[in-house]
Design brief:
This protein is of the alpha/beta class. The chain contains 13 helices and 24 strands.
Amino acid sequence: MPIAAQERLIRPARNVYGSLRLPGDKSISHRYAMLAAFAEGTSRFTNFSTGADCASTLACMEALGAKVNKTNDNSVEISGVAGRVIPAKHPLDCGNSGSTMRMISGLLAPQQGSFTLVGDASLSRRPMERIRKPLETMGARLTLTEGHAPLTIHGNPLHPIDYTTPVPSAQVKTCVLLAGLQTAGTTTVREAVRTRDHSELALRAFGATLTRTLDSVSIPGPQCLYAISAAVPGDISSAAFFLCAAALFPGSGLVFDSLGLNPTRATLLDVLTALGAHIAVLNLEEKNAELVGTVQVSAPPQGLGSAEVSGALAAQLIDELPVLAAIAPYTSGGIRIRGARELRVKESDRIALIVKNLRTMGAEVAEFEDGLDVPGGQTLHGATIDSGGDHRIAMAFSVAALRAEGETLIQGAESAAISFPEFFNLLDLVAER
């Protein structure tokens, strides 16, 4: 059967073994790109994310007056606008990137001029009311289309607020902090569940002052930012697929060099350890306030056990839940996921697609509004997988396919390029067949 360009055939593997150095962390690359473009001076970054989402952020910042120079070795040089953007002549195209649209809105709301943000069909379905409320409370003027993009921002001076996020969201937190950075007074964001803190660390690296407590972050404004030079750590959300793949095969062994190990992102290592995987962290060091280290992972001889992910854990693992669910049938006791309703409003309804594709591969699974139950001890067979154009679904089921009986066809495999263009090549590199 001929395979279309957007499809990928995954054959079962005997083992997963080798050493990987992964592309730069997507979350950090987004933030470095925005802050560097907004700062005074020229910033230089190595190992910048190769994903299409971060390219969307770079293109938007370039349209707003920053100068961007990319090289073939994933390095990027960004000359900033020193705090004053140039209103774009055309709508800013955020592509598939919710991170770009939500965070850049906070940067633009206090600026002079009007800015329209657009995205692809998937992004245009994702909720944007969650940024409208805090920004309008600060005095911003936003126009949405039935709660979604296209989104138009009419920039004007803002006032500080003390805001509690109703849904844990690092993007909303960042949006408010970037607006607060330019607003006279102190803006505070509070959250019941601590979300990833790349924005706070990056703001400090660029020279900003902010104050953190266990459940809040406050930023006084206005402040100026200044250029930095930095190496972007390897992306742990990209590593998640390979960590889970290695955990499936007794005798496996993978080493990740220069991997980002931010405590608000490294929760997956704790879950895999609880499942029985052997994980060692070596050469841990701090670079621009981000922890970076070497990670070794191997599978337990007796196989993986069981796990429950709910509450704060579900919020911290939101990007890794699809691949955890995809390997759950191969555990002995299964994996139970709750408190993950946010998965339904990502690039796709990820809960529905996980359930659909697991069942297509012959798995038993129970679906809930905010999660799912996947019993362990199951045998899966190869099947045709519907990725729904969602990069994390395509990659998660490529991992599940490594232990399935027979070949698996991933439809919409090109979506992996949104975050991780090298994924399939690296999977071929470490999957022994």
